[in-house]
Design brief:
The structure holds 2 protein chains of 2 kinds. Helix content of chain A is about 70%, strand content about 0%. By secondary structure, chain A is mainly alpha-helical. Chain A has a single domain, classed as Helix Hairpins (Orthogonal Bundle), CATH 1.10.287. In chain A, α1 packs antiparallel against α2 and α2 packs antiparallel against α3. The radius of gyration of chain A is 21 Å and the shape is elongated. Chain B is an all-alpha fold. Helix content of chain B is about 75%, strand content about 0%. In chain B, strands 1-2 form a two-stranded antiparallel sheet. Chain B has a two-stranded antiparallel sheet with strand order 3-4. The longest helix of chain B is centred in the first third of the chain and has 32 residues. Chain B is elongated, with a radius of gyration of 44 Å. The two termini of chain B are about 70 Å apart. The chains are: A mainly alpha, B mainly alpha. The interface between A and B is large, with 93 and 117 residues.
Chain lengths: ~120, ~950
């Protein structure tokens, strides 16, 4: 199963990297989403995976009875998912502002015409 | 000597103040400093005999055993007298020449700084110290030549002089280091005793070549001579000082100084003689080509420098004597002529000899000084120049192997120098009277004629009674030769070969002066040749350097974020992936891989679906379908989390996916759906890169999985969760208790991001949805949303409450609550949603952070425990504690973050159509127009953060 996760992480990374290298900022942002998914998966798999044994201690016990899943990567990934959500949401806002200001979301066009930024509306 | 240097530097620093205080008499007052130094060196000179030198040291870098050591022997004394004596004379001159110049203070500061550096060069005993002063002269020269910094040629010339001499300076440093290694010391006085050992050392050749390079660039030897004529853009007093007697002589000084260490070999003699002879000829010919007095002077200086290098190259008693005498001769007549040229320029407004003539009546004193200096330059008796030239001829005649060549070159060069002297003196001062506009010309002021006259008279005195110079010259010659040399100085040595050569020189020179005009035209026609010369190489080199820099900047910093990303990914793939492969970090044995691949069929299927969806998202051109595919990836991962015992992760991932899709679609409404055009080659290249990075990540993970797993930390959390954190959901206990500080940092980031997004959306002009006003949502959705809102909010609170013991918690509860409001927003649009909320969602950010921080402070206040230590109270069987409060803070921040962004986006993207554009709203209009944000364009919107 872990090898399967390793392969899936590779596929997600490859798709994310490919999207990050596109001209459209929208697609670059899609790449960021895929990459953060891939990173979460790497973290998850690196902490080893366990089937059907969540890290929840049964009532009345002070420690789990048998082997349970590793709680540490889960805690890390949980915050990573939320932070990733924050990043993506903020990036979408920036994307929108970029389009509203420059009239394009093409990375190459934006790089070619830096002077348009100075003419842009400062609000 | 240290005292003299410190005094000189202090004088330089005081110069601007003195200029202000002295007013009109600035030149005279400021000359007192160098004059005092001159007197001091003269007094010290009495104690410096042929065998005696004074050495002073001061601790400099004691930990490295480096000392600031100075030595005063015959050679340094002679140079110190020249530097200070001429410094005094020229300081007086400059006071008149630059009278009333607004930067006179700066001029004197630089002038005396240069004087200090030059003194340092000739006094330093330590090689590194010498190098530092040497660079100091280059730097001061840059600032002095570029003194008229408003003029482009002045700046270009200053930079050229700096680059050429600076490059030579670097070679010099390398040479000094090699010399120090070869000789085992950096003290010149020590090295001088080890000359024989150094000359047979392996490092002798590179050390000599590098040091010669430094000396040649400084002393304007071919092919580095071109900077000197260009440096004539400097104010004339600067040229008189730097380009006749001091800076250009620094190279000569260095050669003379290192003669006992490096000199006397065939390499030394041939290199110096060849470079010097070529320089003599180039300078002599160049002098006749120009009509600008200062250019003629510059080229004739080049000739003189060549002569000196030849004489030092011959490196035997008579030639050293000739070199020392000629050095003095040249310093005197050339500085006087520079000053005369400055006076002519000052009084007539031109330096072009073709426009000048017959000035002797108008400027009698200047003319007298010019005649004295000119005769000395031409080498006519009874002036000092005659003594110098006779000695030089004698020295060159005394060389075997070069029986005829050197004297021939010398006669040619000297004859042309005679002609140059004629151009400089006879043309402007004699013959028919000519001035540029026929205006009345007056004698130069006292400050400007006294210097040249004094120098001219000194030249005359030395010519009539050369014995005056016996002591300093013999001391200097001894220092250069490294042993006592028997010398005598006289004006008349009797009839000999040297005298015949002198006569021939004068005859040829007079002829050349008579035929100057045709010669000049002939030389001008040859100018094309000089185009291909070293100056062209310098320009091409500089140009190439700029182009290389521009190319490099374009290459490394092209401004395309895609190139940067591609480079970054390439490095990751090569460095990490390549290393993993090369060093055998991954086991690619099929058995191991197959063993790891064992999974339940539905797991394998899910993984396959997620992977395929990711590839589809990358491949698809349609943005909306890509978003859908991304949703499949995210939801698939959520399912995998469920199967792999991570219910908290699954819930979080699920809710986040939903919210991302909502935000993405909101933004996409406003964005163009144009398909990107991308060449096939580019796509192929990116695909290769992407696969390489993906493979690297896979290999990395496989390599990690091969290592034995250390469960110490997870085990600690599993065992301590209930006893220490009173919670059975270990993941949540980690978040709100064990690692609460991390979580606090993360919610702070969310809060900052929300405020940032709010401001970004508020500012600037909005881009409205392409889709027009949103359609009225269906009745079913509206009815359902109202019901679901209540249900979901209750659920979210339940999630928050139970999170400590069961899957759930602040993050998940917050996302639930936010999703509920987003659903309501879809059904009822923005205005009604804002009414429902009553307070702006961003206030939840602040409240949430305050609750989280406050919960952490409870422990600090009550128990003096570290920040965020959990405090618990038992209410019956129920345990309540600050970590639960902390989770409430998390809940609030997540709700605030999500709703701030979603509502702000909704307001700008899908808000009602804009009123007609108000191009420039005045502040009053904006204040009067305090409408809700949605009725108004962002341009006129007063920010209300």
């Amino acid at each position: 199963m872990d090898v399967l996760f390793a392969l899936l992480a590779g596929v997600l990374t490859a798709a994310g990297v490919y999207l990050l290298l596109r001209r459209s900022l929208v697609r670059m942002l899609f790449g960021v989403i895929l990459l953060s998914n891939a990173v979460n998966l790497v973290l998850f798999a690196a902490g080893r995976t366990t089937r059907a044994a969540p890290p929840i201690i049964p009532e009345g016990l002070s420690a789990p009875a048998g082997a349970v899943a590793n709680p540490l990567p889960q805690a890390l990934i949980l915050t990573a998912i939320v932070i990733g959500f924050g990043l993506v949401a903020f990036a979408f806002v920036l994307l929108y502002r970029t389009y509203a200001t420059f009239g394009t979301v093409d990375a190459d066009d934006l790089a070619r015409e830096p002077e348009r930024g100075e003419k842009g509306d400062g609000g | 000597m240290l005292l003299a240097l410190l005094f000189s530097i202090g004088w330089a620093l005081a110069a601007p103040l003195l200029v202000r205080a002295a007013g009109r008499a600035a030149g005279w007052v400021l000359a007192l400093g160098p004059a005092a130094l001159f007197a001091g060196f003269l007094a010290a000179g009495g104690t410096v005999g042929p065998e005696a030198s004074i050495r002073e040291t001061a601790a400099w870098v004691p930990t490295l055993g480096v000392e600031a050591s100075f030595v005063l022997d015959g050679l340094s004394l002679l140079f110190a007298l020249l530097v200070t004596g001429l410094g005094a004379v020229i300081a007086v001159y400059a006071g008149s020449y630059l009278h009333g110049h607004r930067d006179l203070g700066r001029f004197y500061l630089l002038f005396f700084a240069f004087l200090s550096a030059m003194l340092g060069v000739v006094l330093a005993d330590n090689l590194i110290l010498l190098f530092i002063f040497w660079e100091g002269t280059s730097l001061c020269s840059y600032l002095l030549v570029g003194f008229k910094h408003e003029s482009t040629p002045a700046r270009t010339s200053a930079l050229q002089a700096l680059l050429v001499t600076g490059a030579g300076g670097l070679a010099l440093l390398a040479g000094f280091l090699l010399l120090g290694i070869a000789g085992g010391s950096f003290e010149l006085s020590v090295l001088m005793e080890r000359g024989a050992a150094i000359r047979s050392h392996d490092l002798y050749l590179p050390a000599f070549l590098l040091i010669a390079l430094g000396a040649f660039t400084k002393s304007a030897q071919v092919p580095f001579h071109f900077w000197l004529p260009n440096a004539m853009a400097a104010p004339t007093p600067v040229s008189a000082y730097l380009h006749s007697a001091t800076m250009v002589k620094a190279g000569i000084y260095l050669l003379a100084r290192t003669d006992p260490i490096l000199g006397g070999t065939g390499l030394w003699t041939w290199t110096l003689a060849a470079a010097g002879a070529a320089t003599m000829l180039v300078g002599a010919v160049g002098a006749l080509r120009h009509t600008d007095l200062k250019k003629v002077l510059a080229y004739s200086t080049i000739t003189a420098l060549g002569t000196l290098v030849v004489l030092l190259g011959l490196s035997y008693g008579a030639s050293i004597k000739a070199a020392i005498v000629f050095l003095l001769v040249h310093a005197l007549y050339k500085s006087a002529l520079f000053l005369v040229a400055g006076s002519i320029d000052h009084e007539t407004g031109t330096r072009n000899v073709l426009h000048l003539g017959g000035l002797r009546r108008a400027m009698p004193l200047t003319a007298a000084a010019a005649v004295l200096a000119g005769l000395s330059m031409a080498g006519l008796p009874p002036l000092f120049g005659f003594v110098g030239k006779e000695l030089a001829y004698k020295a060159k005649l005394g060389v075997e192997n070069l029986g005829w060549l050197l004297p021939t070159i010398a006669v040619t060069a000297n004859a042309l120098t005679v002609a140059a002297a004629g151009i400089l003196v006879a043309r402007p001062f004699f013959g028919r009277r000519r001035t540029p506009d026929g205006s009345q010309v007056h004698e130069a002021p006292l400050g400007m004629w006294v210097g040249p006259v004094v120098i001219g008279l000194v030249g005359l005195a030395f010519g009539l009674v050369p014995g005056l110079l016996y002591a300093p010259v013999s001391a200097a010659v001894d220092a250069v030769a490294g042993e006592p040399v028997d010398i005598n100085l006289a004006l008349w040595y009797g009839v000999n070969t040297a005298l015949y050569l002198s006569l021939a020189t004068v005859a040829l020179g007079v002829a050349a002066f008579a035929g100057w005009t045709p010669i000049r035209y002939a030389l001008l026609r040859l100018r094309r040749l000089s185009r291909a010369g070293p100056e062209r190489a310098y320009e091409a080199g500089l140009d190439g350097l700029f182009r290389l820099a521009a190319w490099q900047t374009r290459f490394f910093e092209g401004g395309s974020v895609r190139s940067y990303l591609a480079a970054t990914f390439g490095v990751i793939a090569l460095a990490v992936g390549g290393t993993l492969l090369l060093r055998g970090g991954v086991s690619l044995q099929p058995a191991v891989l197959l063993d790891g691949l064992q999974a339940l069929p539905y797991e394998t299927g899910l993984v396959a679906i997620v992977g395929a969806a990711a590839l589809v998202a990358a491949r698809l051109r349609s943005m909306l379908l890509s978003i859908t595919s991304l949703g499949v990836v995210g939801l698939g991962l959520a399912l995998l989390f469920v199967m792999m015992s991570a219910p908290d992760l699954a819930m979080t991932q699920f809710l986040v996916e939903v919210l991302i899709v909502v935000i993405a679609l909101g933004v996409m409404q406003a964005l163009p759906l144009a398909r990107e055009v991308e060449p096939r080659g580019r796509r192929g290249r990116d695909a290769v890169l992407a696969v390489a990075v993906g493979a690297t990540v896979s290999m990395l993970l496989l390599a990690v999985l091969r290592l034995p797993f250390d469960a110490t930390v997870p085990q600690y959390f599993l065992e301590e969760s209930v006893p220490g954190g009173f919670g059975r959901n270990v993941v949540n206990v980690i978040l709100v208790d064990f690692r609460a500080l991390d979580t606090l940092g993360e919610i702070a980031v969310l809060a900052v991001a929300a405020v940032g997004a709010f401001v970004v959306l508020k500012l600037g002009r909005p881009a409205r949805s392409r889709l027009g006003p949103p359609p009225v949502p269906s009745v079913v959705l509206r009815a359902g949303a109202r019901l679901l809102l209540a249900l979901l909010v209750v659920t979210s609170l339940f999630m928050l409450w139970r999170g400590h013991n069961e899957p759930g918690g602040g993050f998940i509860g917050g996302l639930f609550a936010a999703s509920a409001v987003v659903l309501y927003l879809m059904a009822f649009r923005q205005a009604r949603t804002e009414r429902l909320l009553r307070v702006p969602p961003r206030s939840a950010l602040g409240v949430g952070l305050a609750v989280a921080v406050g919960s952490g402070l409870v422990g600090v206040a009550l128990a003096g425990a570290p920040f965020l230590t959990g405090q618990w109270v038992a209410v019956g069987t129920l345990k309540l504690g600050t970590p639960l409060l902390f989770d409430v803070g998390v809940f609030l921040v997540v709700v605030g973050f999500t709703l701030t962004i979603v509502l702000s986006l909704e307001r700008v993207v899908a808000g009602p159509p804009q009123p007609p554009q108000q191009p420039l709203a005045s502040p009053e209009a904006a204040a009067a127009d305090r409408q809700p944000a949605r009725l108004n364009g962002g341009t006129t919107e007063p920010a209300e953060v």
